[in-house]
Every structure is written in C-alpha cells, then in structure tokens.
Amino acid sequence: MLLREIVALLALEGGNGDRQGAYAGAADKLDTFPASVALMATVETVQGSLGVSEAVAERIIEYRDHGSIGYLDHLRRLFPPEVRRLMVVPGIDANLATRLYRSLNINSLRDLDVAVRQGLLAADSEIGPDKAAMIRLNLTQVEHGGGRIPLGQALPIIQELDGLLRAAPGLSQLALVGSARRWEETIGDIDFCATTTESPDALFERFIEYKRVDRVIAREPDRVAVQLAIGIPAELFLATPETFGCMAHWLTGNRRHTVRLRQLASAQGYRLEPKGFWRSADDALIPCPEERIIYETLGLVMPPPEVRQGEAELTWRRMEDVPSLVDATAVQGDLHVHSAWDDGGGTIEDVAAAAKALGYTYIAITSHAQQGTVDDGLSLRLLRRQVAEIDRYNGRETGVTCISGVEVPIGPGGVLQWPAGMRELVDIVVGAIGTGEDLSDDEYTARLAGAIAGGQIDIIAHPTGRLLQHKDPAKLDWERLLPGTASQQIAWEINANWRRLDLGEQAARRVTEAGGLLSISSDAHHPLQLPMMTFGVAIARRAIVPPAQVLNVGPIDRVRDWITERRRIRTGKAHSG
After folding, report:
1. What is the CATH number of domain 244-321?
2. What's the whole-model pTM score?
3. Which of 149, 228, 525, 531 could connect to 34 by a Cys-Cys bridge, CB 3.0–4.6 Å?
4. Can you name the CATH fold of 328-576?
C-alpha cells in the first residue's frame, strides 16, 4: 500500500508527526475496506467514507486514477532505493525502518542481513530476539523471491485485473487461479487463465498496460508475466477452448493435489498435463473446456478450490462423500461488530443497514468496555445508553435484529477488566487478550483458561493474537482449554479481518474436532468492513468445518437459544460457586 510507504518515508525524513499519523490512519482504514476505492467517485465521498483529510483523499483518488502518487514520488527521491527497500520485509514498519536507518546505520537488505546474523537486532531493547527472528525469516523469503502478501491486500488488485480482462474484446473464458483461488491467507502472485477468439496480443497488451504494473518480467506466445507495484508478480496464461479446464486445474493447485490427480489419471489410462488431457491407449485428446470433465472422467466429484490439498478430497466419488462446507450465503449474522459508540465508524442504524444489504438478519454490537478509569471504551453509564438505543432500534422492526454486547479485555489470571455490572446488561460478552500485549505461550494460555473457568465470556475473540506476517499466533495448550469451552458452549472466534484470520485453518479444525463451537466474525469497525466475513468463511471452508458447529450459520433463533443456554450455564456456575 503506497500510503504506508508515505508514512515510512515521512518517518525517515523526520517530518511532521501529525502528517504521518494522518497517512497511517488512512492506510489502516483503507487496508481493511473491502469496498474498492474505485466505487468512491469524488474526494468528498472518500473523505466521508474513510474519515480522512481532503489532502489524503486527493492522493487516494490520484492513486486510483493513475496508479501513482506524485507526493510519494517526491519522497522517494529523498532516500536511496535500498533504504526504501527495508520496508519490503514484512514486520518492518515505518517506526522500525526509521530506527534501523538512524540508530543502527542499516541502509540496505545486505546490511540488514549482516545485522540480524550478528545479533544486533536481537540485542536492541525495542526489537528483541523474537521479532529479530521473525525479521530474519521474512528477509530470507524476500531474498529468495518468496515474498508474500495477505490475500486481503491483493484482493482489490485482483478485482481490478479481473474487470479489466473481462472487458477485453474477444475474451471467451477467464479464471483466477493459483493460491488466490484457493483462498490462502497469503499469496505470492496473482495468476489468471484465459481463452480468446481474438489475437492474444491485444489481451496481453491490456494486461501489461494495467496501471499498477511496474515492469514486464516475461512475454511468450501463451504467457505474460509482470511485476506489480504491490511487490508481487502477476501472470496471464493463454489456453485453448479444449484445454482451458486442464490449464485452470493445473494452475489452481495445490501442487500435491495436482500431482496426485495426475497419478490417479495415469493409473486409469489417461495422461493429464497443463496443456491437455489424453487417453493413453490412442493418444486421443479429451476436450476439457471445464475442470469438471477431468474429475468426472476419473470418477470423482470436483472439490472446491479451497480444499484442494491432495488428501481426502481425492477420494470423493459421490456427492454423499463430500462433507458439508460453510457457505457465505448461509451466514445470517455477525456477532462481533463495532460502531461509533466506541472506536468504530457509523451509527447502529448504519451498521444494521449494511448488514441487511449483505442478507444478514442480525448483528451484535460489541463495543469495547472501559478498562480502568481512563479509556476510550464504554463506561457502565454509556453501555446502558447503548443498550437503550439498541432496544429502540429493534422496536422499529427493520428486518435486522441488533443484539447487545460488549468486548472485554482478558487480564492476568483471566480476570475480566471491565466495570462491575456490565454482564447483566448485555446478551453477549466477547473476551479478548490485547494484540499489543507481549505474553509467553504459557501466559496466554493461562489468561484464556482463567477467563473460561470464570464462565462470563461467551466468545473468545482473535484467540491466538496473531497478525499475519507481523505477529505469530500464540501456541496454546489446547488440551487445557478445549474441554472447558466445549462443556460451556463458549465459542471460539474466527476473526475474519484479513490482517488477523484468527483462528487459522489448523486451529479451527482442532476446535471442531474437539466438539467445540465457532463464530465467524468480521470485527468490523466501519459498516464497509462487514464484507470481510468472506475471509473468515474461507478459513472455515479450508478447515472443512461442519456448518452445524458455526454459531452464526443459521437463523437468529439458533443464536437466541445459544444465548439462553449460555445464561443457564453461567447461572449454574454462579450458584455452584
């Protein structure tokens, strides 16, 4: 994101802190807005939607229209390219880049590598060994071409490229392929496969001239590759109508899945390659305009891209063999949403209207609780006022029911840090350990265990505290935690914010295998962020989570029954205690 580069360069320049903050805040908001800025027609619209200054809005529009920002070009000229390249390494933000440059005299990736190996970063009091180890790993990936970015960061680019290519004259078929099609959390490239009735040169030129292309990497008769401004490559592959399905299958992957399917084909007398599907006996080409034909020919059900891991999905021979997967259309509500009552944007009416537009029938407004005496969260008095507003809204029968809730910090020993009396006011309590807290795995587990034993929380938010490419998930003692949540029907959240995706795929699977309950939530801090739910659904699908174990799959009556049962369990614990 170019706004983050502006922040970093302003920090390197030692410039105005307020200006840095303005761009950083805009980048944070824009990063998590799935709605494309292309939909925001004017500077005023961008200002109103994102809450940014006119100057920042003008530069966002400039980037949208031209793929570049003149002010950024000016800042880039002030510093050597290698200094700017420090920010390519995931985990190095504006503040850290400034520290590396000014305090440790690091002005290139080579300098960074030497400093990491010599232990200079680990010895730095503001970096430490854990962050230094993460930077070393990320640096290795960047140096070996393994740089990846979160799928959510790439999605607006994917959507722009898709629209650009679909508008090409003569385009017949187009498919997003690769890790993005499989909805992996991070991706290393953006790949498309296409067929056209016109000359491929016109299609390739359209791809190359995309405004966010930095340079052309390769151009061949059936393939073109470019480097994008966001730091990863994009490729467009050309197939024929008879081989499109083969090409799309092969490029979608993953590698284990394609190799195993190729082996299954060989065992049945077929040859499967990216450019065709042949019967081995007479070398006859089997037309494959769709992937489905490959699987059906081999007696298999075509698995969704998200679950193509080269495992059980290649044993599905009947629809009865295919496990039920969470479908985005089955999600009828969001149980972790913020509004203007705390640090979110938009009124309760705004949030509910956005939820209704997505087809939801309910949302939970879970404002942050005040922690201590000075905090941005809600006091007991303000929470009472919020609950009263929710009641008034529900009295209007708009088609979306608002559920009262609160998000509460989980402190040492699992003690909830909130004003007394809040539990009785709300239907749902979301408990969370602050992402900024630096805890050991044992401390993290102990806090969650204490909160679970206390029985006051209903949902555990972003349970492992991970931030993609910036903070590893805590290694929880699942054996200690899962029995308590399963017996009390406390739900574990799949936080769908694409910078978190917490729980991840493996952890979500572990919860459901232990009989636990999940809640997929957007943690939206603005109505436009509600569609981030899609990323959480992808995690659930990749984990093959049974829909019956996802709390917000299904009607509001299911949630109401769960709230009632949680109240019964909580009351029982209080009486027994």
Report:
1. 3.30.210.10
2. 0.82
3. 531
4. TIM Barrel (3.20.20)
Of the options 3.30.460.10, 3.90.78.10, 3.30.450.20, 2.60.40.420, the CATH number for the domain spanning 149-238: 3.30.460.10
- Of the listed ranges 156-160, 203-207, 211-215, 279-283, the one predicted with least confidence: 211-215
Is the Cβ–Cβ distance between 562 and 362 less than 8 Å?
no
Phi, psi for residue 393 in degrees, rounded to 5: -60, -45
Query: 513-525, pLDDT tens digit by residue?
Result: 999 999 999 999 8
How far apart CA 398 and CA 395 sit, in angstroms, is 8
Pairing of strands 223-228, 362-368: unpaired
Fold of 2-143: DNA polymerase; domain 1 (1.10.150)
Take residue 536 and report the two structure tokens written for it: 């959480």
pLDDT at 374: 45
CA atoms of 369 and 545, how far apart (whole Å): 31
Dihedral of CA 150/56/343/427: which sign? negative
Is the backbone of residue 562 left (phi > 0), alpha (psi -120 to 50) or beta? Answer: alpha
pLDDT per position as a tens digit, 339-395: 988 888 889 999 999 999 999 999 999 999 987 644 568 899 999 999 999 999 999
pLDDT in tens, 41-80: 577 777 766 777 787 788 877 777 776 788 877 877 776 6
* Cβ atoms 88, 231 nearer than 8 A: yes
Helix (H, G, I), strand (E, B) or coil at 19: helix
| Encoded tokens for 514 | 């232990």
Residue 1: pLDDT over 70: no
Is the CB of residue 547 less than 8 Å from the CB of residue 553?
Answer: yes
